[in-house]
């Protein structure tokens, strides 16, 4: 599937890699909460269309982590998406910039929300990566 660009042609792209059975979302600039919500709803619709619960999320250009967005993802959207995609297990490979990776360690407000959202007790699996190749390879590992 060729990449789909967001309606404003500047917010995000999303594509389905049929060879890997992975949906790839790339944010092209920092997004508001509303823009992030639209992009994730689009991703979930494509997940249903392609019966694909493997998502590579490339947030390297999305700027710093925003507490409100992280809360919405971890407390609302991702648990709901995981339930909708059952019996498939939602698996999220989060491809991050070094700055965002570091922020989750030093920004205590964000760190707590990210820790909760990525906890093993969630109804989905999440792993964080600084290398896209390793992120894609993670989908091949046993669950």
UniProtKB/TrEMBL annotation:
Which top-rank group of organisms is this from?
Bacteria
Q: Provide the protein name.
A: STAS/SEC14 domain-containing protein
